[in-house]
Design a protein that fits this description.
Layout (H helix, E strand, L loop, with lengths): L2 H11 L4 E9 L5 H10 L12 E10 L2 E10 L6 H8 L4 E7 L9 H11 L6 E6 L6 H18 L3 E4 L8 H20 L10
Bound molecules: guanosine-5'-triphosphate (GTP) and magnesium ion (MG).
The site of guanosine-5'-triphosphate has 21 residues, from helix 2.
């Protein structure tokens, strides 16, 4: 990871209302890096190389009147990097697990990623399931993946499911905002329990 990225992240931490670490996992090649690049730069890059180990991104955003420092960790999906990734999951506030809608085999790894996040981050970490590459999936696959994804959401007690396309720019911000908004609501309701009835977003 680049030192200047870490320095930027540390500078951000001192000025934000909340600072959260979000971890991203899922099978190799499903499109995690492409997704984060689209989110951070609004560009679709077709020639990413596989993520070696982990990559870190930092960003400050405003949601619900709060300044939020995000540190997003992109965990390489290749099995061989797993041994060094456990420690990077520690302290995460939320997780996003990705699978490829056009390759339903990638759904089989979702359970393992959820289990890892719960083991190494926290047993109660909120996790969103995200389908990628909606643009190249046939209608039939889209329907099938949605059905299977919703079963997993229920089975594994995830926040929910969103299909996305980094190529089309579909549901990119929605994914991040869904996670962040949930954390904001959790934080505010936990802190001021009983004083703010019914926070909605
Ligand atoms: N058509 C299409 N291709 C995509 C999309 N997202 C990613 N890809 C392609 O899928 C390939 C793999 O994307 P990556 O982002 O490198 O995948 P990754 O999940 O980060 O892979 P690892 O780092 O090995 O875990 C690249 O060739 C991307 O261009 C998408 O929304 N649509
Ligand atoms: Mg990657």
């Amino acid at each position: 990871m680049a030192i200047n990225e870490l320095a930027r992240a540390l500078a951000m931490v001192s000025t934000a209302d909340f600072n959260w670490k979000i971890i991203c996992g899922g099978a190799g090649g499903v499109g995690k890096t492409t997704f984060l690049f689209r989110y951070l730069t609004n560009q679709f890059v077709a020639n990413t190389s596989l993520t070696v180990g982990v990559q870190l991104h930092s960003q400050t955003i405003e949601r619900q009147g709060k300044k939020i420092g995000l540190i997003i960790w992109d965990l390489g999906g290749q099995e061989r990097f797993r041994f060094l990734q456990d420690s990077y999951m520690k302290g995460a506030s939320a997780g996003i697990v990705f699978f490829d809608i056009s390759n339903l085999g990638s759904l089989l790894q979702v359970k393992d990623w959820v289990a890892m996040f719960r083991k190494f981050a926290s047993p109660s970490i909120p996790i969103l399931l995200v389908g990628t590459k909606l643009d190249i999936a046939e209608e039939q696959m889209h329907l099938q993946s949605e059905k299977e994804a919703l079963v997993l959401v229920k089975q594994l007690d995830l926040i929910g499911y969103l299909p996305s396309s980094s190529k089309l720019g579909k549901n990119i911000e929605a994914v991040i905002y869904t996670v962040v908004d949930l954390l904001v609501v959790q934080k505010l309701s936990g802190r001021q329990a009983g004083t703010i009835g019914g926070i909605t977003n």
